[in-house]
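Give me the fold.
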Amino acid sequence: MAGNPFPLNKGQLLEAYRKMKTIREFEERLHVDFGRGDIPGFVHLYAGEEASATGIMAHLGDGDRIASTHRGHGHCIAKGVDLVAMMKEIYGKKGGSCNGKGGSMHIADLSKGMMGANGILGAGAPLACGAALAAKLRKKGEVAITFVGDGASNQGTFLESLNLAAVWNLPTIFVVENNGYAESTSRDYGTAVDSYVDRAAGFGMPGVTVDGTDFFAVYEAAGEIIRRAREGGGPTLLECKMVRFHGHFEGDAQTYRGPGENEENRNNKDCLKKFSAEVAGSGVITLDELKAIDADVMRLIEHAVAEAKAAPFPTLADLTTDVYIKY
């Protein structure tokens, strides 16, 4: 076998592939089930963006906090949230991560450091500042990461959070997942700067842009940024340029897309294809090993869907629970 040219050992490479494949198949199954009318509410899919969540979360532990977006399933899976609990939540069932009360856009699991997906654009940024301030006071080297899309990056809450994190020198990482569209508005049409790194410079913090379809580019950049934050170096903005395979939401006609754009993304900008070709081509991992993971992931998804469909709905008596917390 050839030497390992990657910054992860074989076991870590297989785990990274498993995470990305799990996110992909989770989302593709939701695409099918939502189309059948099985899932209530709105659903926004993360398929195509898996390298960002997986590459960043590989450096985090349960004590590190993340704040997600309306497109948060991938962040949840990469952070270690239970797949069955997630599926139950999306189906609106008891036993879901929020007892079936939040649905797709409000999955949370504080035990895993997942502060929640969020239907309000940019709303996770100030939450991450709060978590980062707490981490700074605890002095355990923990960090907080907020994910936003290119549309949310224009929100005042996001820009105010950049300033606050810089002023207080917080261990916060601001990840802009730039998939080219704010809902249906092209990034080039709706954002004045050519690169989100320019935004970071305006607040006196470093910024890095990477190819968000390249797992290893994300992994290496995130590793350095997170290490810097843990050591007291303060906040950083990380822009991941990527594509989403589906529309902004399930049911989106995508009339804003150019001819053949979706096919181009699937064929030439698929982070899973890139990862598979690179690790298999190196000889470190075989295609058979990847196929075995594929089969295992499909079994896991089928199990999660079966559990979600069989679970009961919340009852009327559940309506007033989970409103207040006791300290």
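The longest strand covers residues 172-178.
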